[in-house]
Amino acid sequence: MNLLLILKSKCPQCRKNNIFSSKGNLLLFQIPLMNDTCKKCNFKFEKEPGFFFGAMFVSYALAVAEFIGVFVMSYFIFGLSLLVSFFTIVLSAILLSTLNYKVSRTIWIYLFFNSKVKV
Ligand SMILES: [Zn+2]
To answer: 3, 40, 63, 99: least surrounded by Cβ within 10 Å?
Structure first.
């Protein structure tokens, strides 16, 4: 897996086109929109209905890792109080939500693209 391709949400097959057609807007409560297939190589992103159910668990793991990172930074490095650290975590959860959505789905696509198990 190429970390940069995942962060940029590129198609796993041709590695050129984007998986998502829009970035989404946090202020307008819009989630990023996904293309059904790759415009360049016709790779189908959603293998079957409910394919992205598992991406929820990837998203959970990402969020927990981010919360731990934010907590360590705010509490231990910047020396903020527990309450302020908590609100920093809440703020980071909101700000990183669209990124988590995109990255978790991309990781899920890449997991099944590289494995031998065909879905
Ligand atoms: Zn492609």
So the answer is: 3
